Input
Amino acid sequence: MTSDGMFSDIPVEIGVVYEGERIRKQTMHVELGGPQVKEKFEILRVKSPEEVHDGEVKVLGPDLSEMAVGGAIPFGICVEVAGAQLEADMEAVMERRIHDFCNWIEGFMHLNQRDGIWLRADKKAVARGLTLNHVGMVLIRLFRSALPIIDRISVTLITDPALVHRWHAAAVQTYEERDARTRGMTDEDVDVFYGCSLCQSFAPSHVCVISPERYANCGAISWLDGRAASRVDPKGPIYEIQKGECIDPETGEYEGVNRVVKEKSLADISRVQLYTAFGYPHTSCGCFECTTFYVPECDGLGIVNRDFRGMTPTGLSFGSIADSTGGGRQVDGFHGLSFEYMRSPRFLRASGGWERIIWMPSDVREKLKAYIPADLYDLIATEKDVTSMDEMLAFLRAHRHPIIARTVTNEVSTSDTLGSAPGSHRDIRESRSLPQGPGTGVSITFHNIRLHADRIFVRKGRK
Output
């Protein structure tokens, strides 16, 4: 698909070929939303026919050419649709397609979802005449083409900060109402899970497995949303997964899930366990709302969200940690999460659940306060409590975090260091090997060991 035909009036190319395009800071004209902006959102609502002005695009606030180059501004997208076959249960699934369709636009990048969206417009695209009005036109045409059940559609793009603030509050309320629908359902209540491959343009081996107790990593698609999507478009990127035999109820491993994940990942991933951060953890795309990170000094797990701008106590930022797990990989201790999954009773159950969590940003802890066990809430450190690993270890000892008892129980050697012991990770694979390939000439396998070193040097040997 190009600018010919249905997109002949758009000044840049339109097509799936641009879906993986990345716009770096030095080439961007402006950033819409993103981590520097507190309020941003995208939402799709099903309305009655008389409420939707078919084909209308509205831009409320400055357009791209009127924005300061290099800036970051509050931003909102609202899509309203109507159709005889449309239901409110379909909203979240159709909303997720905003991500796909924006990325079809040359020189226009879209990341994330809901109130975490991050978009950039390229300088060259704006110089060629790309406007937000064009973006709205493209969205309307692609939605009509992909979802013929839409009879009427309109798009509103908001750049006025005051209006973004007002619409943002209503959007967040809608997200919460959607999320609440599946709370109380369990994975045993259903015979079918759902898979999502929407992010495979960025993470080719990633398959999101969506169950009643495990939301999609992006936080935008629940089990009910998956059911609605598979019914509307049975051959689309969201599909049924027959659970099959339960291999391990503790880790959440199912024969049917493994079979589908292996097929959809082209055999790159063969096993997935839904309730653990170790062993065969769920893969991560690039759109996850939060991620865990393993802290070997105390055998604990930290959590960091996409909007956190500081450094974790390990000295790593969200971006660095996300790079360690994104792209559809399985990495022990590094695990993409949605906020809603963290509200689930099965949240990392096989890895210790909330008793394994030692750090998270203060706003995340407050957001999840009703779901963190009351006796653990004050024991989880935040950036306001600690900024280094020395401070972290002192905090855990002073607050008698359960991770201390876990470590002492597993400790084999006598040591003053608060750390993990040989064999303490019962859910980590028996052995792990460093990646190797043609020409590497090296294979290193670790079996239940404990290492402490100030420095490690790896040099090429001489024959």
